[in-house]
Amino acid sequence: MPTLIVVVVAWLMLVVQGAVGGWFGEWLVPQLAISVVVFLGLERTMVAGGVALLMLMWPVEWLVGGVGGIYSLGLVAVFFMMQLFRGRVQGSWGLSRGIVAGLATLVHSLVMLLVLTLSESGERVMASIAWQMWTSCVATALATLVVGRVLGRLDRLMDPRRGRNVLEFRS
Amino acid sequence: MLLAWLEHHRRKVVAMALLLVPLVMFATSAGATPGKDVGAPARYAAVPMGWTQSKVSALLGVTGLFGGAGSSELRDENARLQAEVDRLREENTRLIGVLQENGRLRELVGFRERHPEYNLIPARVIARDTSPFFRVLKVEISADAKLKPRMPVVSAQGVVGQVHQVFEGYADVVIVSDPRSRIDVVSQRNRAQGVVEGLGHERDYQGRISYLSERDEVVVGDVMVTSGMGGIFPRELVVGTVAEVQESQRGLFQEAVISPSVDFSRLEEVFVIAGAE
């Protein structure tokens, strides 16, 4: 699937989550931005995934409405971490990828906490992150399995040979 | 030459850009303090997202869940009756929505009549933030409304929060329970002073009242209103009700948990106080 379409689909998912997010309360919030970055990190190269992440960065910041930049910095850390895992975890969107997504969510929160600790003491913001990261890690892990399957299905629809060895007859 | 160099080092270039962009965002942000002017590109870049969220919330807000019900494999008569039931149900749902909206608007008009001194700008809630750490509402405003960061936002039930960032036709509102929010309050009963701070966690939308003097008597059920100190919120706007009084953790002060008077999960229309006469 071309990078631009991945970006548009991810953008739509995030925008719709913002619009209907109030239905599910503020306690158990899956972070779809992390799910998308886990997909990009595991399924795309550094360049293709990195460009998609760069294109999504500002929309994500706008949708989060948090302390500018730190959410994106966390996403970059997750992306780099996923690049290390690329090709080393289960191929389908199953349990192991869910666990990886949960870990990625914790890493994302820890990076945010680290940046806040080094830059300015937003004590209550930090308490909020430290409190919510645990439930969010579970919610995001589950959401990642869905997001990964949806994006993976779109990948296969647009590029059926992706990730498979296919014999070709060449003239 | 440059293109060839970029092509050769594209991985490093992308990695550097990934690290630099968030750092630039962070350096140019207001940090953990709400209220910040945004530049012209950012103001307009928010329009497509705000427009999509506005359409999605309008679609799903009132009739979206019930609009598509129907039957397919019943006999003709049954199908006709079912279609009639569906139509009436849909109409009923829409009318209930209209009545509820009417009620809310009446409350808002009532608020406006009770406070003629304020210059109130109406806004419609279209979305919420997508992270569990912050409590931000996205509101749609008319394009000619002149909003500024830190302007107070209220509803008929009381204080909602304050404007954080303003975009073209949209604005971010940091609500009372966001961890960046701080509002000076007094008890309506005995004028005990404190500061309501958002928790951003624990039971969804609750906040904490800090810096309440040990000598002041605060009991569950006390209504806390804005004190007018700080110059952002006008006096006597209801913020919430004391839900729990806790033992002091800071020696001189006691703390309390406050339940905001506004039900943020059902909030659809708000007013921004753009000034007072």
From TrEMBL, chain A:
Membrane-spanning segments: 62-82, 94-117, 129-152
Keywords associated with the record: Membrane, Transmembrane, Transmembrane helix
Protein name as catalogued: Rod shape-determining protein MreD
Automatic annotation (TrEMBL), chain B:
Regions that span the bilayer: none
Pfam families, alphabetized: MreC (PF04085)
Record-level GO BP terms: regulation of cell shape
Signal peptide (from-to): 1-32
Keywords tagged on the record: Cell shape, Coiled coil, Signal
InterPro entries from the UniProt entry: Cell/Rod_1 (IPR042177), Cell/Rod_MreC_2 (IPR042175), MreC (IPR007221), MreC_beta-barrel_core (IPR055342)
UniProt keyword Coiled coil present: yes
Chain segments annotated as coiled-coil in the UniProt record: 71-98
Domain Rod shape-determining protein MreC beta-barrel core: 125-273
Gene Ontology CC annotations of this record: plasma membrane
Function: Involved in formation and maintenance of cell shape.
NCBIfam families for this protein: mreC
Family from the record: Belongs to the MreC family.
Protein name: Cell shape-determining protein MreC
